[in-house]
């Protein structure tokens, strides 16, 4: 999915639905210093969090109206996941799939009867340093970018939702470019975002404000993302189709927290690099980075 941002937006979440994989995260951070120390800019490490042992998927409070569907769970065959294995503290593949199915019901009202859930375990990435279970849901035997499907990403240990998305290919041709008028006045989508956020209790309470984030598209379906901020300060992002206002993606508060933390870490690293380069220049010696170039 391509995104055209109005501004940098430190709190925005890019919600992707193109191949059915969305990224988000959760954390209870002890301090910024601890998190900064945990991420080495030269490699992937995890940001620490204070975990509470999760309840099993069967013992969780299920969303209102949810009934377990008859779906099939398989390991995602994508090469990316092949060398990544869950640890003893992580949820099992089946537990994670059921938690994801409940999340999709809560957000999209979709039942997964007859669906196949392709589950992939991720130990974390350079820009998303937390372990997650990622589910790619398809109906039928095919699995191509053009398929209609859903996806989700949850914390590999606690099962807390990071993000979820709905992907499709429209049967009509529509303009994928940014709508300048909509960027200036996104009130109709802000109202949609507020109503859905409060109905699903996405920010654990009432919504204080809605902020335009960006426009983009997935496949041939143009979209708009609105950030919602709760009265308690929690943040989430909702992506809607600009074609028919269908909900396409949700970035949950847990994902916002880690995205903001990583942003701060990167900004600090950039500031440190600039300070170091400036010092080298003042001393008349090229920095190590400039020498490498």
Number of helices: 6
Classify the beta-strand content into a percent band. Answer: 15-25%
Question: What does the overall shape look like?
Answer: globular
Q: What is the string of helix and strand elements? A: EHEHEEEEHHEEEEHH
What is the spatial order of strands in the main beta sheet? 1-7-8-9-10-6-5-4-3-2
Compute the gyration radius: what is it? 20 Å
Structural class estimated from helices and strands: alpha+beta
Low-confidence stretches: 1-53, 286-293
Averaging pLDDT over every residue, what do you get?
Answer: 81
Counted beta strands: 10
Largest sheet: 10 strands, mixed
- The span between the termini is 32 Å
Estimated helix fraction: 25-40%
Number of domains: 1
Could you walk me through the main structural features you see in this protein, from its secondary elements to its overall organization?
The protein is of the alpha+beta class. It is 26% helix and 25% strand. It has 6 helices and 10 strands; from the N terminus they run βαβαββββααββββαα. A hairpin with a 5-residue loop joins β5 and β6. The relative contact order is 0.19. Residues 1-53 and 286-293 have low confidence and may be disordered.
């Amino acid at each position: 999915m391509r995104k055209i941002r109005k501004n940098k937006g430190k709190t925005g979440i890019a919600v992707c639905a193109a191949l059915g994989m969305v990224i988000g995260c959760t954390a209870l951070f002890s301090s910024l210093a601890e998190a900064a120390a945990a991420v080495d800019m030269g490699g992937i490490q995890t940001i620490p969090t204070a975990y509470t042992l999760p309840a099993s998927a069967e013992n969780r409070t299920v969303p209102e109206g949810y009934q377990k569907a008859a779906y099939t769970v398989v390991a995602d065959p994508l090469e990316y996941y092949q060398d990544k294995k869950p640890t003893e503290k992580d949820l099992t593949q089946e537990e994670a799939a059921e938690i994801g199915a409940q999340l999709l019901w809560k957000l999209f009202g979709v039942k997964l009867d007859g669906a196949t859930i392709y589950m992939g375990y991720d130990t974390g990435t350079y820009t998303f340093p937390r372990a997650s279970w990622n589910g790619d849901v398809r109906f039928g035997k095919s699995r191509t970018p053009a398929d209609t499907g859903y996806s989700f990403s949850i914390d590999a240990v606690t099962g807390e939702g990071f993000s979820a998305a709905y992907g499709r290919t429209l049967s009509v041709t529509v303009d994928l470019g940014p709508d300048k008028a909509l960027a200036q006045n996104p009130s109709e989508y802000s109202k949609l975002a507020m109503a859905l956020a409060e109905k699903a209790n996405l920010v654990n309470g009432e919504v204080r404000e809605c902020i335009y984030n960006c426009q983009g598209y997935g496949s041939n379906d143009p979209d708009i993302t609105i950030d919602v901020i709760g009265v308690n300060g929690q943040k989430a992002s909702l992506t809607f189709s600009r074609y028919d206002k269908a909900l396409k993606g949700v970035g949950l508060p847990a994902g916002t927290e880690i995205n903001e933390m990583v942003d701060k870490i990167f900004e600090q690293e950039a500031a440190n690099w600039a300070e170091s380069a400036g010092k080298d220049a003042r001393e008349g010696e090229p920095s190590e980075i400039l020498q490498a170039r």
